[in-house]
Amino acid sequence: MLWAALWLHRATGRPEFLDYAVEMADEFGGTGWAITEFSWDVKYAGLQILAAKLLLEGNHRPEHQLKLEQYKSKAEHYLCACLGKNDAAGNNVNRTAGGMLYVRQWNNMQYVTNAAFLLTVYSRYLTSSFFKLHCAAGPAQVDELAALARAQADYVLGNNPTGVSYMVGYSRRFPRRVHHRAASIVSHHTDGRFIACVQGYDYW
């Protein structure tokens, strides 16, 4: 609800959506959860960065200041976690030997690409606002956020120890047998039968 409210505020400019995100921030965990991932079902880091944008730009009423600062603090926890600059190892995102951010074994690329996106977005917010990012292990420069974002994108596209692009169809080496029916099912031109969702398991 908080995520939706801030996007509606951004799309419409209507103040009641921002009021809602501020008033319900504590109850719905927006200012309570310090997160080290951003995924299809865990939106807190994105929410917190979107709220921080309003603070950095001064695009809010005075009574929103305190709550937006709390949002910003949690947003920076996520960013510092990606940079490995939080106060304890358990509060940072792990890295593989090749340098890829690693959250968990299933669908890890969503966390990598999402992190690259949020790091890029926040680096631009900082550049335009002249604010600084302060992590427990020391200050982080805007260039560090942008460099990590680029490194993660490059890793996905093939600059990794195996030299394989994880984006199907990009570069000369990419996965040919993707573990997903939509990516491995035969062309409709080859087999024109109607295949329902469950039936797909029978063949692919």
UniProtKB/TrEMBL annotation:
GO terms for molecular function: cellulase activity. Keywords: Carbohydrate metabolism, Cellulose degradation, Glycosidase, Hydrolase, Polysaccharide degradation. Residues 1-188 form the Glycoside hydrolase family domain. The active site is at H179. One of its GO terms (biological process) is cellulose catabolic process. Gene3D superfamilies: 1.50.10.10. It comes from Eleusine coracana subsp. coracana. Its EC number is 3.2.1.4. It comes from the Eukaryota. The gene is gb03166. This is Endoglucanase. PANTHER family: ENDO-1,4-BETA-GLUCANASE.
